[in-house]
Design a protein that fits this description.
Pfam family, one: Glycos_transf_2
Organism: Parvularcula bermudensis (strain ATCC BAA-594 / HTCC2503 / KCTC 12087)
Distance between the termini: 42 Å
Number of strands: 12
Protein name: Succinoglycan biosynthesis protein exoM
CATH architecture of the largest domain: Alpha-Beta Complex
Helix content: 40-55%
InterPro entries: Glyco_trans_2-like (IPR001173), Nucleotide-diphossugar_trans (IPR029044)
CATH superfamily of the largest domain: Spore Coat Polysaccharide Biosynthesis Protein SpsA, Chain A
Strand order of the largest sheet: 3-2-1-4-10-6-11
Radius of gyration: 19 Å
Length: about 290
């Protein structure tokens, strides 16, 4: 039996959702259904979904799951999907017209989940170094040519795969972020087969509030915290390594003071290791999700 091809989107106070749905309607391989989970306290996205349904003709399923916890919203998508090939993307992304078709082809080659990149689209006033580094773009992490984790910014998964069938996102990470990384890392440790599909792209227009270096460095620290909290092994050794790596990266950044591209490449890497150190020491920091979206 051929599994239905579904798309899931978590949303929280994001009017841009209408553009995301329009991009799904423009797919060369249109989804059989789109599941939209509204994680706000009130059902603020319902009118947007109703308008999108009338405009696009897509089969849009809407559910209000309050709680300001993105792990709960992601689990609601899994519950609503059942047995399916389930794609996910964010509510501030636009999918390339061949996105689903590319993921579907890759899935047919024997993967439990396939991932594509989320490519940042910068406004004209963005600093030149951002255009060179594209630090807002998201690629699933790799080591030695193999994926070491995944993300829900661009994924297609087989929910019937034994390693994924009963798996759920951990609500403990639902406000601080990183529940998707923890989900996919755990699946990999249990033998999941993941593939990268570089041409299956979604695009994220970068809003003005995210152009600040402060926002970027905080985001990298947050990503590192998730790694530090979720990685098994000896914490003392990992803490020492993180300290050494962050010191090295910041040292390289200081030496590149006249080269913004090199300075921020090393500085952002150093910020990631600061986050790993904080997470390893159990210092999770402030909640990220559930506030006004930025």
């Amino acid at each position: 039996m051929t599994l239905p091809l579904l798309v899931g989107v978590c949303t929280f106070r994001r009017p841009f959702l209408i553009e995301t749905v329009r991009s799904l309607a423009a797919q060369s391989r249109r989804p059989d259904r789109v599941i939209i989970i509204d994680n706000d306290d009130q059902s603020t996205a319902e009118k947007i979904v109703d308008a999108a349904r009338d405009e696009t003709g897509l089969d849009l399923f809407y559910r209000h799951v309050p709680g300001r916890n993105i792990a709960l919203a992601r689990n609601a998508i899994l519950d609503a999907a059942g047995d399916a090939r389930l794609a996910m993307l964010d509510d501030d992304e636009i999918a390339d017209a061949e996105w689903l078709a590319q993921l579907e082809i890759a899935m047919s080659k024997g993967a439990d989940a396939v991932f594509g990149p989320s490519i940042a689209v910068y406004p004209e006033n963005a600093p030149d170094w951002m255009g060179h580094l594209s630090p807002h773009s998201q690629w699933p992490p790799q080591k030695g040519g193999r994926l070491t984790s995944g993300h829900t910014a661009n994924v297609l998964m087989d929910t019937t795969a034994p390693v994924l069938a009963n798996r759920r996102f951990d609500p403990a990470y639902g406000r601080r972020g990183g529940s998707d990384a923890v989900f996919f890392e755990a699946a990999l440790r249990e033998g999941a087969r993941f593939h990268l599909v570089a041409d299956a792209r979604v695009y994220e227009p970068v809003i003005a509030q995210r152009l600040s270096t402060r926002w970027l460095y905080r985001r990298r620290i947050k990503a590192g915290i998730t790694i530090g909290l979720s990685t098994p092994g000896r914490r003392s050794r990992r803490a020492v390594l993180a300290m050494g790596k962050s010191a090295y990266c910041f040292g390289r950044a200081a030496l590149a003071i006249g080269d913004p591209v090199a300075r921020h490449r090393h500085g952002l890497r150093g910020a990631l290791h600061v986050g790993v150190l904080r997470g390893t020491l159990g210092l999770s920091g402030a909640d990220y999700y559930g506030k006004a979206p930025v």
